[in-house]
Amino acid sequence: PVQPCIKTPPFVQSAYFIISGFIGIPNIRYYFVFLCFIYIFSVVGNTLVMIVIILDRMLRSPKYITVFNLAFTDLLSSSALVPKVLDISLFNHYYISYNICLTFMFFCFTLISMQAFNLVVLSFDRVMAIMYPLHYQMRVTQKLILSLIAFGHHSYTRCSCYYCDHGPMYRLGCNDATPNYIIAFLAIVLVLGFPLAFIVGSYCCIGYSLSNISTFRERVKAFKACTGHLSLVAIYFLPIIFVYVFWPVIHPNARIINLSMTSIMPPMLNPIIYVLQTQEIKESLRRLLKARAQAKLEVFRLKPL
Question: Where is the G-protein coupled receptors family 1 profile domain (predicted)?
Fold first, then answer.
């Protein structure tokens, strides 16, 4: 007998989603004011770092090309996330269309993934600088760094994110969610697992190289060159790992706030770390401010009375 054809149920696309993550959290408007200040500071700080690197020819090295790309990615990341979150929550625009939701998800995840890859490139730069100091200039070239950055921009454009939010979105569906669960797991491994494993391996190599340095002062001096990058790694990875490890025991409101902070705080803190902990950028700022002051003084002297 001929078996009846079983038709696959048609795909039903929702017209909109309701973003309800911040609904019901007490005094949440104070958090959004704080969020607004963080965003402004992040935009100003990362823009300042990029301007300093562009204006100072001495900073056009492979390391600072990566720092420029990190600042640029941080600027785009905070700009993709914070304005939309403020629009949703402050102006009660909780309804978001299907296409806009997926677009929001795509850009958030892509830019956050690029941040992780930038930290990988910076760790590679630090390994080469400490393990092969005499060959650093020949091995780590601008062409190599630009190729790594271009690879990072290309390879992280095919995944989904938790912002609009990937987990709650696929759980809304009535079909089998196993493929979505697998994709989410692979995305976490690719975005967090592989970069973190590479960075840990890099610092194991750096630690081995430091142990071969004869004097303690030289070891401390070499390690100070890595403190800025280590701070960035800690700021990026530790909050995310904390949220995912303690996910079952964290209150839902605290979990939502922590997840938003893990994406907002690094773009604000990265320029502070590089300005305060990087001697080259501090000296560059002094030179630029001194040159600007001298230019104003010359204009004032030449101005007719």
Answer: 45-274
